[in-house]
Amino acid sequence: MSKLKDNKTRNLFLGLLLDAVGMASYFIPGIGAFSDIIWAPISAWIMTRMYKGKAGQTAGAITFLEELMPGLDVLPTFTIMWFYTYVFKNAKKKKKIIEVDAE
Questions:
Q1: How many angstroms separate the Cα of 77 from the Cα of each of 10, 57, 96, 97, 100?
Q2: What is the pLDDT of residues 39-63, one digit of tens each?
Q3: I need a labelling partner for 97 at 20 to 30 A (CA). Which of 25, 26, 32, 57 fits?
Q4: b/e sequence 61-90, b meaning 16+ C-beta within 10 Å
Q5: How far apart are CA 103 and CA 24, in angstroms?
Q6: How many domains does the chain have?
Q7: Can you give the residue range of the structural domain that contains 85?
Q8: pTM (2 d.p.)
């Protein structure tokens, strides 16, 4: 299995787990807002380590804000970033094929 395939699978399962952790404040009464204050910087840091470069930094900032804003914990930002990285971004790269008409 290639390194890209290994990272792809690992990041998917890790992202799903981290999104579940971020949503956990809804399910555990009494710790909601307090846990979000702690989880926001941790999740942002993890996002920047999982996805390098400008995209990872942007996703980290979005994750940080999403965790701090009330009611937005339901957004699966790690999973959305996985789709962006491994589905949409790869599809965009594949479309850049240049066809030459040989008449």
A1: 16, 13, 27, 30, 40
A2: 999 999 999 999 999 999 999 999 9
A3: 57
A4: ebbbebbbeeeebebbbbbbbbeebbeeee
A5: 62
A6: 1
A7: 12-90
A8: 0.78
How many CB atoms lie under 10 A from the CB of residue 42? 15
CA distances from 51 to 12, 17, 68, 71, 73 (A): 12, 16, 21, 25, 20
Inside any domain, residue 4 = no
Instruction: Tell me the three-class secondary structure of 12-50, residue by residue.
Output: HHHHHHHHHHHHHHHHCCCCHHHHHHHHHHHHHHHHHHH
Give the whole-angstrom CA distance, residue 68 versus residue 97: 42
**Structure tokens belonging to residue 30:** 């009494």
- The pair phi, psi for residue 76, each rounded to 5°, is -85, 75
Say how far apart CA 75 and CA 72 lie, in whole Å. Answer: 6
